[in-house]
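B., you asked whether I could sanity-check this one before it goes into the benchmark set. Here's the sequence:
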Amino acid sequence: MVPGTALGVLAGDLVYTWLAVRLMRRTGHEDVTAMPFGIDTPTLFAMVFGVLGPVMLATGDPVLAWKVGMAATIAIGLAKLGLAFGGDWARRVVPRAALLGSIGGVSILLIAFLPMLKIFRDPLVGLVALILLLLALFGRVRMPFGLPGAFVSVLAGALIFWGRAGVDLGPSGTIASGPLRLALPWPTLGWLDALPETLPYLSIALPFALVTTIGGIDNTESAAAAGDEYRARDILLTEAAATVLAGCCGGVIQNTPYIGHPAYKAMGARAGYTLATGLVIGAGSAAGVLSLLIGVLPEAAIAPILVFIGLEITAQGFLATPPRYGAAVAVTFVPVAAAVVLIESGSLLSALGTSPTALTGDAAVGYQALLALGNGFILTAVLWGWALAAIIDHRLVVAGLLFAVASVAALFGVIHSPLASGALFWPWAAPAILPRQVAGAYGVVAALCWLAATRLRRISA
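And here's what the prediction gave me:
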């Protein structure tokens, strides 16, 4: 599974490196930064707990679970191939406030906030590494010997961690010391045998194709705001093809462009870093050395880089959009906040030996509302930000249309799904009454926008 998934990362990084070199030659700019690329973390959790785990529990067959994972990954990739051709159109139609706002919400609440918790689990390592990074990248303080700030930050954190462990003044990590073994990913058609078993899980897997496609469009707009104008179609086709390749070679997680292009650009990364990343991940996964690397580098020393990325992208969301759209950018953070609370509350409930299904009364109602707000948060954020931007511009007919789209999406569970897995469903087979209530509310809001548009036309006439 790991080498096949990593092959998709390698292929995507190679293409993104080539796209950056091509852009550099076309524009004559030497500071072009390649788009970051890797596996999609939300899909990882969805595949493990919504597909691989349930198949394994139901059948007791790990090979069948693996084949179902491959088939679901290939299905996601094929869906993204079709969606990729609408990327440039979406960038032209959707306002920058919605695109950068949604990615900003993910950046500050998922990419920055959650790693900050890891920093405070080990503040001596994490805070020292974080401040060194901020001094170098925001304060422009020159590091010793002219070394890159991110490198100095991670190195300092790792030295503190292992130095402290060496004198028994703190915890130490566990370094995997298993034998290295070459495992080259190779194409297989074994997943065809699992197609019948895969069909029930597509309602869980396929929404993530839409999520990463929207994320790819957001990231392309973010790169453009930072000065690197890529075609959304090229970025999206690459992630789709890499996902299909990974699935055909044993991978079970889809690929996606990462949030953080402006942050990497600020750190001095250019076209070559994606080449280095792809080679390290691809070769390291095939040789089995990634676990060694993970063991050597403490989490608290790595987390500051993610915090910096979160801060940089969030700032871009406000700075690269006209000031009048500030509220439209801010509203996109709300559904992302719900997703963060879901992640943390799920961990807490699990640690207490219980689950959300054990909640009763107001607690159960509150959790259900949280679940509905958090599921499909990327699309929800884009629709809300776009609609508010349209309201700010007095384009109330457009705002009404967007709320009508949200109403239909809620009926199918594309957004606000009441299921813990976030799976889709048919409107006539909804698992709860909440989707119909939300859809009806969106419908009323759409009608109000259209009535307000009629009144504005009468006043202006």
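One thing to flag: The chain has 21 helices and two strands. Otherwise nothing jumped out at me.
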